[in-house]
Amino acid sequence: MSNSLFRFYADNKKNLLGLAVVVIISLFAGILKMLVSALWGQVVDFGIAGEIHHMLTIATLMVGMILVDCFRTMFHYHLIGEVTEGMFVEIRTRTFSKIITGDMAVLEKNFHAGDAATRINNDIESLSTFVAGHVSNFSRLIFEGILAMIGCLILSWQLFIAICIITPFFLWLVKRISMPIQKQSKESMDNTGSAMSIAADTISGIFTVKAFGLENAMAEKFSRDIDAAYKQDMETEKVRMKMAGVKYVASVIQTMVLFLIGSWLVYSGTLTVGMLIAFITMSGYISDFLGQADYMISVYRRAVATAQRFYEILDIPDEKSGIVVEAVSKTPCNTSELAFAYSQERPSLRGISLGIKQGQKVAVVGTSGCGKSTLIKLICRFYLPQSGELTLFGVNIADWQSDALRQNLSIVTQESTLFDGSIYENIAYGRPGATRIECENVLRQVGLWDFVSQYPDGIDHQIGEYGNKLSGGQKQRFCIARAMIKQASFVLLDEATSALDTQTEKEVQNALDKLLDSRSALIVAHRLTVVQSADYIYYMDNGEVVEEGTPAALISKHGRYYDMCRLQGLIKEMEATV
Length: 578
Hints:
20 helices, six-stranded mixed sheet, alpha/beta, disordered C terminus
């Protein structure tokens, strides 16, 4: 949108006074340069007339103005830094906050990690460069050009008419040629963002990439997006080359016309030599303005495209949060005819009805894609149901205040998400303010204290990016410790052991047993070893509950759950017949 840049300034109105002062100082710079040009003409005329005293006086005044302009330049850049640095720290913070508080549905659908990181880093850096540097420089060039036109009109209307005939035509031509730049810049940045997402995915999954020999495939995908961005940049460069050619022609024609007409005016006595020199000096500022017009327009259009991408992040809607902050019942979860679809073509949940009582462990099992993880997302209030009812602790999910609800939930997922930092920091994320003794206690409960104690710095040991210094089982048990220290009454397990080997699964299962002790739990699993101790089981298929009951009842029924247990080698009678 062409107004994205104007919206950017409107949204930062508290900084507009400082930016306005920057622009006013640019105007002052233009005034100084015009005065120096005018005085330069007088110096020449006094010198030709032999009035040395007057010539030296005016020359001294010129030097004084030049020194003032030097101090003006230093103060100008200092002020720009003061105004823009704090402004863009706030902008980066706002953008990051929007990403972490925005609606999950929009984030999952429209933004990949690498592209979002590019928008936070490169795009905002580009906007910062425009606001901090280009606006000041461009406003100076514009003011100098406008004031130079006024000065030229005062000195010689004949020469000014010549400029007025040449300049508007070339400005219109430059603007016309530059029109594709905004669209090309937006597409180039989008392709670059896509490439960065591929790079982020490849780096985080480098072991899988190498193990499956995907280096070439990932390189091809990365190259495809980078090449697309390169092609757009080359198209932009072609436009800029055309603009540069127009600029050069305009400059040459303007200079030729001024010298031809000016020489005739001096010969006829209409102008003095000093006035002609002052005019040509001032016209140089017009030429600078005209010569930079192509660059200014292209930079402006790129800034508009960047601002558009910036607002695609800021316009992510916030989570729709309710107002209830306290539970009204100890019953963790009930659903009735719960339905949800990511797209109209394929519903993920079709009329799910289930209940979890206080202290009860309920498992939801089924094949991949049956809707188990979607149910977890709804319970976490990442999405809201499209029909049916979902109540948590006696409150309808839509009425819960999101943060308040999640204080009652602990979750352990298949992906062991840890952050670059110390062991203590990662555990304490479960409950900010948790003491080191509390962290030590939960580490003992999940069987990790002996492992942690071997490090000289203990729980202050750095675990590396994504916890890459740890094994899969260790990472998962750290995640369980983090969930445990939160002390939430309702635990969600989403395929918490599916990525582990048998021995590691047993170690993690022991930790999970400690986590689930005296707590209500919803256990989502494909591997059924995790759900053998559940009080009640729901078997899902294609978004629907097709079987439910206690583990013993479902085994005796010889239905879907029984078949699934048999395939996983959990039915002893079946094993004996093999």
